[in-house]
Write a structure and sequence with these properties.
The protein has about 400 residues and is α+β, with helices and mostly antiparallel strands. It has helices spanning about 5-10, 15-40, 45-50, 115-150, 155-190, 240-245, and strands at about 55, 60, 65-80, 85, 90-95, 105, 110-115, 190-195, 200, 210, 220-225, 230-235, 255-260, 265-275, 285-290, 305-320, 325, 330-335, 340-345, 350-355, 355-360, 370, 385. The chain has 3 domains: about 55-65 and about 315-385, conserved putative lor/sdh protein from methanococcus maripaludis s2 fold (Beta Barrel); about 70-80 and about 225-315, Efflux pump adaptor protein, beta barrel domain (Elongation Factor Tu (Ef-tu), domain 3, Beta Barrel), CATH 2.40.30.170; about 85-220, Beta Barrel (OB fold (Dihydrolipoamide Acetyltransferase, E2P)).
């Protein structure tokens, strides 16, 4: 027997052991694969599970009715006029007869300047008037006597003309004296500073004891009337034609003033004026509304939200503004169908008033639409509707 045959005879007994080892590993691998498939099949894909889970949403019913169309703008409350009260005479301030912030009426005493110098001026003017009046009366008596002498031919006509001229001079002096008397009386009146208009006074600008002059720039106090009062606000220039056309009608457009959070209505008034040009910096037009302000809810320089009623849409479908979404293809809403799935419905917006939007196309009254949870929806998505008591109608 050669060497190769001897080697084959020596290896033959080890073949069954090798085959048995490979079979064992194959059985273990198959068992592991079956176990993996079993456990994997028992677990659900989280993404697929989330996709099939209903999306919780808030809904509302579209309703049919009338809706007001308003233009909103941030406005500033302004007084009809703002008067700085100044002294018309120079002197020492001896009395202040108002409380800061109080309401005053036209003609009410506010302050008093020391009147004694003006009383002395009045006495001097009256004394000069009395002196010149005596001289005037004497000149008139002399004229009467000279007229009789001229008729008798005792004196010349020239002397009579001279006396007539003297009487005229004394008469002119009397008029000048009378003007001085009236001027002194007027200064005495001006020493009592009164309110030129009715309104609310501001903070006192001069204290008692100071010398006030007519040339003082600050004055004594300011007065701002608050009944009625104005609100100046701006609206986009794109809507100015609508405002002009409505304002041309007989009725004045109503305006409401709301607080900065649009939660509380402060006052109701009417449109009073429209500016004559568009502000190129903001692209808006300024409007002015007047308010009776009987309850004094509006205060000068207060910031408010003004809402101008320009139209009323009749018989339109009204939905919450939050339900209307926008895309490059147009506006749309998610309509909830009977099987609790949603459908994308294209709509046409006719107008918006705060939380309400009027639709001219795409929806009918009574249909249910989604108002919250819209970011998670796709056409055909399943939704979880709230309880009937929680649904907004």
């Amino acid at each position: 027997m050669d060497t190769s045959e001897s080697a084959l005879v020596d290896q033959a007994p080890g073949r069954p052991a090798l085959l048995q080892g490979w079979r064992l590993w194959a059985i273990v691998g198959a068992a592991a694969l079956l176990l993996w498939l079993f456990f994997r099949g028992g677990k659900k894909d989280p993404a697929a599970s989330a996709a099939s889970r209903p999306v919780p949403v808030a809904v509302a019913l579209a309703r049919k009715g009338d809706m007001a169309v308003r233009l909103s703008g941030l406005g500033t409350v302004t007084a009809l006029s703002n008067v700085t009260v100044k002294s018309r005479v120079d002197g020492q301030l001896v009395r202040v007869d108002f409380i800061e912030g109080q309401l005053v009426h036209e003609g009410q005493l506010l302050a008093e300047i020391d009147p004694r110098p003006f009383k002395v001026q009045l006495m001097q003017a009256e004394g000069q008037f009395a002196k010149d009046n005596a001289a005037f009366q004497n000149a008139k008596a002399d004229l009467a006597r000279l007229e009789g002498l001229v008729k008798q031919g005792i004196i010349s006509r020239q002397q009579l003309d001279t006396q007539i001229s003297s009487v005229a001079q004394f008469e002119a002096a009397l008029k000048s004296d009378q003007a001085q008397v009236e001027s002194a009386k007027l200064n005495l009146i001006y020493s009592r500073v009164t309110a030129p208009i009715s309104g609310r006074v501001g903070l006192r600008l001069v204290d008692v004891g100071n010398i006030v002059r007519t040339t003082d720039a600050t004055g004594l106090v300011t007065i701002a009337p608050i009944q009625p009062i104005n609100v100046v606000f701006a609206v986009p220039a794109d809507h100015i034609q609508q405002v002009l056309s409505q304002n041309a009608k007989a009725t004045r457009l109503p305006v409401e003033a709301w607080d900065r959070d649009l939660r509380t209505r402060l006052a109701a008034g009417t449109l009073a004026a429209i500016d004559n040009q568009v502000d190129p910096g903001t692209g808006t037009v300024r409007l002015k509304a007047v308010f009776a302000n009987e309850d004094r809810a509006l205060f000068p320089n207060q910031f408010v939200n003004a809402q101008l009623l320009v139209d009323t849409l009749r018989g339109v479908v009204i939905v919450p503004t939050a339900a209307v979404q926008r895309s490059p293809q147009g506006d749309f809403v998610y309509l909830v169908k009977a099987d609790s799935t949603v459908e994308l419905r294209t709509v046409e917006v006719q107008g918006t008033d705060g939380d309400d939007t009027a639709l001219s196309k795409g929806l009918a009254g009574g249909e249910t639409i989604v108002t919250d949870g819209l970011e998670k929806l796709r056409p055909g998505s399943k939704v979880a509707l709230p309880k009937p008591s929680a649904a907004k109608g």
